Amino acid sequence: MLSDASSPASARRAPKSPLVLIPSRLASTRLPNKPLAELHGLPMIVQVWRRAMEAKLGPVVVACGDAAIFDAVKAAGGEAVMTDPDHPSGSDRIFEALQKLDPAGKYDSIVNLQGDLPTLDPALPRAAFELLADPAVDLSTLACAIKEPAEKTDPNVVKAVVSPNASGNGGASTGGRALYFTRATAPHGDGPLYHHIGLYAYRRDALERFVALPPSALEKREKLEQLRALEAGMRIEVAFVDTVPLGVDTPADLEKARKLLA
């Protein structure tokens, strides 16, 4: 087990034993039974599990809110654990799964992947996990420069406001420290805007601290859970990546995923 959140960052070590958890439940209004949607002969959640395995970070387990998801994953040879179907967030679901799977604290970090990313590049979870090597970082995530003008004002595209790290070779920064996340167009002025990708890596002690905190004021206002961590003074590091993975939310997204996997 890593040091608790009150310990100095200098006492932390780079995590060596990550556990990859994928929270999944059937509730979806735009695409009913989304995790079980067929993608090239397999349920979508199994395709996501396969992409996570391809990242080769550590064991991959689906944290299920419904027995049908559990059965589908197990039938495909994957690992799964049942969790309370009424969890308000994926973070709460993966924390329950972590407690059930590893009460002794063998795993020192957790990578949280969304269950609707069947075409995920396995390099992306690795990029997030590598940021935890910095002892000052509590959790990490990803962002991609927005290229489509319409996305800059779309409230469904969450923007990461990042203080970029200095580039060692004079080129573009590869990431930086998250200052804020918002549905608004931010920051103001010339320069890139970044589309936040909802994939996270946590130090174990940081996840424990996060789920124990009550929802924060800005979190409730923006409807963005990660703001709870920032308001509590936790450090979120961001890696800039070249592409936003396809999130499957509608039948049209599902057809696009089928073509991409083909």
Describe the structure.
The protein has about 260 residues and is of the alpha/beta class. The protein has 2 domains: about 100 residues, Alpha-Beta Complex (Spore Coat Polysaccharide Biosynthesis Protein SpsA, Chain A), CATH 3.90.550; about 120 residues, Alpha-Beta Complex (Spore Coat Polysaccharide Biosynthesis Protein SpsA, Chain A), CATH 3.90.550. The chain has 8 helices and 11 strands. The strands form 2 sheets. The chain has a 9-stranded mixed beta sheet, sandwiched between helices. The protein has a two-stranded antiparallel ribbon with strand order 2-3. A hairpin with a 2-residue loop joins strand 2 and strand 3. It is globular. The N terminus is likely disordered.
Instruction: Provide the CATH topology of the largest domain.
Output: Spore Coat Polysaccharide Biosynthesis Protein SpsA, Chain A
What name goes with the CATH superfamily of the largest domain? Spore Coat Polysaccharide Biosynthesis Protein SpsA, Chain A
Distance between the termini: 42 Å
Specify the structural class.
alpha/beta
Judging from the principal axes of the Cα atoms, what is the shape? globular
Indicate how many domains the architecture comprises: 2
Average pLDDT score: 93
The number of helical segments is: 8
Query: What low-confidence regions span 5 or more consecutive residues with pLDDT below 50?
Result: 1-6
Total count of strands:
11
User: Judging by the overall fold, what is the CATH architecture of the largest domain?
Assistant: Alpha-Beta Complex
Biggest beta sheet attributes? 9 strands, mixed
* Helix/strand order: EEEHEHEHEHEEEEHHHEH
Strand share of the residues?
Answer: 15-25%
Under CATH at level 1, the class of the largest domain stands as Alpha Beta
Provide the spatial order of strands within the biggest beta sheet: 5-4-1-6-10-7-11-9-8
Radius of gyration: 18 Å
**Helical coverage, percent range:** 25-40%
